[in-house]
Amino acid sequence: MKVKEAMKKDVLMVKRATSLRGLLDMFKDFHTLPLIPVVNKDNILIGVVNSESLLDILRPQQSRLFRNIPFVEVDENVFDLDTSPLMGELIIVDDVMDRNIVSVREDDPLDKAYKQMRLYKKNRLPVVDASGKLLGIIGVFDIIWRMFKEKDIV
Prior knowledge:
- By secondary structure, the chain is an alpha+beta fold.
- It has one domain (3-150): CBS-domain.
- The protein is built from seven helices and five strands, in the order αββααααβαββα.
- Helix 6 (110-120) links the parallel strand 3 and strand 4.
């Protein structure tokens, strides 16, 4: 089984210059924000925004610096931080997107996609073609569903 047989092709994506307000407005009707692909004018995948990226906007700088240091606890109460409504227009996707992208190709086997998800602790991955153009997204549940479908359970 290939990734293209299980991936979702209908994907909301954003450009680098999209404002934070525009990004949040676009995704406000979704109950989760697992992965937001960022593409250039040719739909080439150049980054992703995830919920951690968005929460980092509200976290104090020192909590981000010490996040990956073992045995260091930092109070990161995002509800106490002073913010300005101007942040919605001044912060753009390019400011918060992750450029270290883990993706899979449409012709990769499903087990490779699943192994990549486990290795990088991701629940969803962008799917690209050989040129890096975004084609869709595949999630753990997409893989599970496809496996059950192959076994004629669904």
